[in-house]
Design a protein that fits this description.
The complex is a heterodimer of chains A (247) and B (502).
Chain A: H1 6-11, E1 16-18, E2 21-23, H2 27-42, H3 46-49, H4 57-82, E3 90-93, E4 105-106, E5 115-118, E6 147-148, E7 157-175, E8 188-194, E9 202-204, E10 211-229, E11 238-246
Antiparallel strand pairs in A: 1-2, 3-5, 4-11, 5-7, 6-11, 7-10, 7-11, 8-9, 8-10
Chain B: H1 3-27, H2 33-48, H3 55-59, H4 65-79, H5 84-98, H6 100-116, E1 121-122, E2 129-130, H7 148-160, H8 162-167, H9 174-191, H10 201-216, H11 225-233, H12 237-262, H13 267-278, H14 292-300, H15 304-314, H16 316-334, H17 347-363, H18 366-369, H19 377-403, H20 415-426, E3 433-435, H21 443-447, E4 453-455, E5 468-472, H22 476-483, E6 486-492, E7 495-500
The chains are: A alpha+beta (247), B mainly alpha (502).
């Protein structure tokens, strides 16, 4: 270690230690501290990477510029995050495996590349009641293979969207009672054809059937929306399958 | 030794630290389920509406601050079209680079400790033992800072210590808490050297950082005690008051975030304490004996620990805040039934700084020894070199021995599982993924697609929606999937993805 006597040190623009105590504070140290604070606040790492170099003013400006860019990028990301669409709903896109066949068929079968939107879905570690289960085409689903809304979701809804425009003839829904207790079957819901010339929504009340089929004549539609009213506050809406028949 | 030489060595240490962390990100054990499902997946869930929600996030036991921090980067990356797996790896790598702050802090703290370790001589002006010479606190002209020997050794140990490098890329709350604590300790060490006020910035930062560390990880509150006592003991009451005042800022921020997200001020903090301390329900996740941390730390460095403890204890008159804090943390968390190695990870940088500072003084103290009488010169130099060789050998041995004892880090997700998920995400025909263990995956973030990813059940294999299955090789799930006509698509390191036959 290079030892400096006190006289020499006093001429240097740095803090010194005398009798074991640091005395004074130097501009360089203050500068270091100031940029360090910026680093802490804005997640900048660059300053420390060159902190041990006697960096020039130009370099320092470069570091601060990098800090500014990182800060701006993070701030923009934060805004995107805070106003993310996922907060209110989710969108599931299944790949299109085969084209729609001519003639009447289930427009929302998973292999046709349906897009599903829902207000929420219930999930825990073991059971993901993902909206994709609505279109898996299972004749005998297990308890897991259903879409369920979250308990906090007061106005659950699902939308099933397909490529292009198709005519809808009828909608078939397998409710909770199809597999589990009939008391879980949702009693009230609203079926809407997503189309510029959509007919009036179909209102269903006091439903008790575990499988319901509704005629919904809609000549040109790109999707279907169903708005549910939970049977009780905090109750889940459970649907095993939705089929939209048309051509 | 010139300032330029010290700067170059320090730059090399930083480069080595960065390389160690980037290597750890790719070659080390990959990801704690908690890192993924507590701090990344909630952000992804908020962003996309898809994700696994753990019970803590149903019960409001976690603060949104850290997921929000990650979420901002994830949102930006997702908008730029980066896949989820890349975003996850970038978050890990960025934390690795952030953790280099600990190397910087170790340099500063090591300097401060080593300065205090200089031999004391009678002071001509004050009449009490003190230091005859003056040394610069920072790089001044051509001179390195005083105590650079300890600083370099401490920084080198913190930079390349393998266990620390591995935990430095895990986006767990322990990591930012540890970084904040170590930096606060470094500032504290410098502040406690001063006999003048020295400005308010340093105590303010100490207050913010200590408070931030506790807000991020409540158990680390035990590590706040000694720095505050240290300041008090040195009579720095004004600094203590500034630190206490500034400590309110993170507390208020975390409280406000809880209010906005969970509906009550300090909701997650209270729920966390209630769950862990009052109800003792953390024990539901496993109980271990009180000596578990000691045996685990010992198993990581059976004899190397003694090599670190020796200098740390030798210089106890200056390293006591570091050593006692490290021991205090281990003692405190040993009282809790549920134990995980990551809870005690702050033990390592504190011990490494204390040991490095003293070992550095031993290693590079030839400058002091130049004043030895000439008649003993040759013997003295030989002994000095032997001592230096021994110290270098001991430090290298600690690092290499530690790198060979990294096995058995619990609860990690292997790289192959994450790569398997990424492979599935790239398959254009993938409509659904079954995973044999949901917490053994990178969640929906790593999948990066909106197709369902559900924990395996045998009845789900017949659901045509699930085009792929991720399972351990030789597992029951793999056997059953093969029986049902699934064929291998990805096979690496004991992890398989089977694809439904067309």
């Amino acid at each position: 270690m290079r030892l400096l006597d006190e006289r020499a040190m006093s001429a240097e623009p740095g803090a010194t230690i005398r009798n074991g105590r640091i005395s004074g504070d130097c501009p360089a140290l203050c500068e270091q501290r100031r940029t360090f604070v910026l680093g802490i606040l804005f997640g900048l790492r660059a300053r420390w990477l060159c902190a041990f170099c006697a960096i020039s003013r130009r370099r320092r400006l470069l570091c601060l510029g990098a800090a500014g860019v990182l800060t701006a990028a993070w701030g923009l990301g934060l805004l995107l995050f805070l106003f993310a669409g996922g907060h209110g709903s989710l969108t599931v896109s299944l790949p299109s495996l085969t084209p729609h066949p001519p003639g009447e068929h289930n427009l929302v079968a998973y292999q046709y590349g349906v897009v599903l939107r829902s207000s929420s879905y219930f999930r825990d570690r073991y059971a993901q009641h993902h909206p994709a289960f609505l279109v898996d085409g299972r004749a005998h689903p297990s308890l897991v293979e259903k879409w369920a809304s979250e308990p906090s979701d007061k106005r659950p809804w699902v939308e099933l969207l397909w490529n292009g425009q198709h005519a809808i003839q009828r909608v078939r829904i397998q409710h909770a009672g199809f597999v589990e207790s009939a008391e879980f079957t949702v009693q009230q819901y609203l079926v809407t054809c997503l189309s510029p010339q959509a007919p009036r929504p179909l209102v269903v009340i006091n439903n008790k059937a575990s499988v319901t089929e509704h005629d919904l004549r809609c000549l040109v539609a790109h999707g279907l929306r169903i708005d549910f009213t939970p049977n009780a506050p905090g109750a889940l809406v459970r649907i095993f399958e939705i089929e939209v028949w048309g051509q | 030794v010139t300032a330029r030489q010290v700067r170059l060595v320090l730059a090399a240490i930083f480069a080595a630290g960065a390389a160690a962390r980037l290597l750890a990100a790719r070659l080390g054990p990959v990801l704690y389920p908690d890192a993924c499902f507590q701090y990344l997946e909630p952000a992804w869930l908020h962003l996309t509406g898809l994700g696994v929600k753990t019970w803590e996030w149903n019960d409001g036991l976690r603060s949104w601050v850290l997921p929000g921090f990650h979420g901002a980067w994830l949102a930006l990356g997702a908008r730029l079209g980066l896949p989820g797996s890349v975003l996850g790896e970038l978050v890990r790598a960025s934390w690795g680079l952030c953790s280099l702050l600990m190397v910087w802090a170790a340099w500063r703290a090591g300097n401060a400790c080593a300065r205090q370790l200089r031999p004391r001589v009678a002071c001509s002006t004050c009449g009490k033992p003190g230091f005859r010479e003056s040394v610069p606190l920072t790089f001044v002209g051509g001179a390195p800072p005083g105590g650079w020997q300890g600083g370099l050794a401490a920084a080198a140990l913190v930079a390349v210590f393998p266990l620390l490098a591995i935990y430095s890329v895990e986006p767990l709350a322990e990591l930012p808490s540890m970084i904040a604590l170590v930096v606060a300790f470094a500032f504290c060490a410098e502040l406690c050297e001063m006999d003048t006020r020295g400005g308010r910035m340093r105590p303010a930062l100490i207050g913010v950082l200590l408070s931030l560390a506790v807000c991020l990880r409540v158990v680390n509150g035990v590590l706040v005690i000694l720095p505050l006592l240290w300041l008090g003991w040195r009579g720095r009451w004004r600094d203590l008051a500034v630190a206490a005042g500034m400590a309110l800022l993170p507390v208020l921020f975390f409280g406000l975030v809880d209010r906005l997200t969970w509906g009550g001020y300090f909701h997650s903090f209270v729920a966390h304490l209630k769950f862990n301390l009052i109800e003792g329900r953390a024990a539901e996740f496993g109980k271990l004996p009180a000596t578990w941390y000691l045996t685990t730390i010992g198993s990581r460095l059976p004899w190397g620990l003694a090599l670190l403890a020796l200098p740390a204890l030798w210089g106890l008159r200056v390293t006591w805040p570091f050593v006692l804090s490290a021991l205090g943390l281990v003692a405190c968390i040993s009282t809790q039934a549920h134990k995980e190695e990551r809870f005690a990870i702050v033990f390592w940088p504190l011990l490494l700084i204390a040991a490095g500072a003293v070992a550095g003084r031993w290693l590079f103290s030839n400058a002091d020894q130049k004043q030895a009488p000439p008649r003993t010169g040759r013997l003295w130099r030989t002994l000095l070199r032997a001592r230096q060789a021994a110290v270098v050998f001991a430090l290298l041995a600690v690092v290499f021995d530690s790198s060979g004892r990294l096995h058995g880090i619990d609860y990690t997700i292997p790289h192959a599982r994450l790569d398997a998920q990424t492979w599935v995400a790239r398959q254009p025909g993938a409509t659904g993924l079954l995973v044999d263990w949901q917490y053994g995956s990178g969640g929906y973030l790593w999948l990066g697609r909106t197709i369902p990813q559900v924990e395996y059940r045998v009845e789900l294999l017949s659901n045509p929606l699930f085009s792929h299955l991720l399972a351990d090789k030789g597992s029951r799930a793999e056997t059953e999937a093969r029986r049902q006509g699934f064929a291998p698509g990805f096979d690496r390191d004991g992890v398989m993805v089977l694809k439904r036959a067309d």
